Amino acid sequence: MKIGILYICTGVYDFFWKSFYLSAERYFFQEYSWNREYFVFTDASSIYGEFENEHIHRIYQENQGWPDNTMKRFEMFLRIRDQLENQMDYLFFFNANMEFLSPVGEDILPTEKENGLVGALHTWYFDQHKWNCPYERRRMSFAFIPYWKGKHYFQGSLLGGTTTAFLKMCDTCNRWIDNDLKNNIVPIWHDESIINKYYLLHPPKVLDCRYNYCEIRNLPVERKIVYKDKTKYFSFENLKRPSYEVYPLMPGRNIIKILNLMEWIWRKIVSII
User: Fold this and answer.
1) Catalytic residue flag (residue 222)
2) Nearest Cα to 193, choosing from 260, 142, 130?
3) Within 13 Å of residue 92, how many CA atoms lie on the same side as its CB?
4) Which residue in the list 52, 192, 215, 222 is annotated as catalytic?
5) Whole-model pTM?
6) Which of 49, 153, 233, 264 could form a disulfide with 125 if both were Cys (CB 3.0 to 4.6 A apart)?
7) What was the pLDDT predicted at 247?
8) Pick the CATH number of 2-246 from 3.40.140.10, 3.40.50.1820, 3.90.550.10, 1.10.150.120
9) What are the backbone angles phi and psi of residue 233, rounded to the nearest 5°?
10) pLDDT tens for residues 7-40?
11) Rounded to a whole number, what is the largest CA-CA distance in the chain?
């Protein structure tokens, strides 16, 4: 069986590649029946290990800046669709700043009932009520999730699934993002907002915080995969942040919240009648 590891490290993010790669070689799907193939999208002229390991495939990717480096990830993956479809059984994407700390393998594989997909709970929102989760609340966006919907809030740092299910997700999410951009809309948390909408419609296997642990949190759980605090390495300008330009004011957000609540109440009244 072959598992494809999708990894984006343009600009300064190639700094994280070596530690991620070495930890994956030590802990990720070490069962002898699995072969790991690394597909690394980067503008670096070379990356650690590529000349020693024929399973590392460096794919040139222009540094598109923020937020396109993350929001266009599905478009990047679809560029090598034929290669992925023909060669891989499963696909997993990991954020550049992630690192394995203990063995991870078939325990994260999804079932058919889980739509062949895998999602990881957000370390900072896994215990929050859905009303407090930062879903996209504007109706004009394809990422829109009303306040009365939603169950889990997934972080965009770890995505996975069977090759067929994963690429189907990429197709849909890429189309939604393109349509939003054509309408001058940028979802509040970019690709993460789109992913949460897709997972709402196609519930995945849910990975708890052990598999997506923020290193600055202090939770009483085993740490299998951590994501590093970027502020230790880069300035704020390089960090992920919400689209304040298109979702700027708290009063506006409160109005949207009230309108969504009114619609929910109306739906309840209609269902009773």
Assistant:
1) no
2) 142
3) 25
4) 192
5) 0.85
6) 153
7) 40
8) 3.90.550.10
9) -120, -30
10) 999 999 999 999 999 999 999 999 878 999 999 9
11) 69
